[in-house]
């Protein structure tokens, strides 16, 4: 299974470089609210990186069958089938699926590695297990 992994949970500097890179890749704008990786404040006050687990909860929720797992284990959204209802966004346990108001479809992490390349701390990595 291919997925994005946080290799050092305490290494995030909350610089948002990963979030900016993701929003630019998906939406061609620098807007952290449109990122499929999120940096939140953890219970201890330190930055916490939320990344897609590729758990499939979004796919099981999608009534249109628009989210399917590919051969590498990555859940992908079929933009032709997605109605943009947002139900998958609501059930995502990591809160990393995005339904931007101007987009007719939802977006999610596809384990592309753009965020990992942008991370100056080097704590993000695409792994295949």
Describe the structure.
With 129 residues, the protein is an alpha+beta fold. The protein has helices spanning 17-27, 57-61, 87-91, 114-118; strands spanning 2-6, 38-41, 47-50, 67-69, 75-77, 124-128. The strands form 3 sheets. The chain has a two-stranded antiparallel sheet with strand order 1-6. The chain has a two-stranded antiparallel sheet with strand order 2-3. The protein is globular and about 40 Å long. The termini are close together.
Short précis:
The chain is α+β, with helices and mostly antiparallel strands and 129 residues long. It is built from four helices and six strands; from the N terminus they run E-H-E-E-H-E-E-H-H-E.
Order of helices and strands: EHEEHEEHHE
Query: How much strand content do the residues show?
Result: 15-25%
* Number of helices, where a helix is a run of at least 4 consecutive DSSP H or I residues: 4
Largest sheet: 2 strands, antiparallel
What oligomeric state best describes the polypeptide chains here?
Answer: single chain
Helix content: 10-25%
Head-to-tail CA distance between termini: 5 Å
Strand order, main sheet: write it out. 1-6
Low confidence ranges: none
Helix/strand/pairing category: alpha+beta
How many whole angstroms does the radius of gyration measure?
A: 14 Å
Task: Based on Cα principal axes, name the global outline.
Answer: globular
Q: Taking all residues together, what is the mean pLDDT?
A: 97
């Amino acid at each position: 299974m291919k997925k994005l992994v946080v290799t050092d949970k305490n290494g995030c500097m909350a610089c948002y470089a990963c979030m900016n890179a993701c929003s630019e890749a998906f939406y061609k704008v620098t807007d952290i609210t449109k990122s499929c990786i999120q940096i939140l404040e953890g219970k201890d006050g330190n930055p916490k990186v939320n990344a897609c687990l590729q758990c499939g909860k979004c796919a099981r929720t999608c009534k249109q069958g628009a989210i399917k797992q590919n051969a590498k284990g990555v859940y992908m959204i079929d933009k032709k089938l997605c109605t943009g209802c947002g139900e998958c966004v609501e059930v995502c346990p990591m809160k990393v699926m995005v339904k931007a108001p101007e987009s007719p479809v939802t977006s999610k992490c596809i384990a592309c590695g753009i965020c990992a390349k942008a991370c100056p701390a080097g704590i993000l990595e695409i792994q295949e297990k």
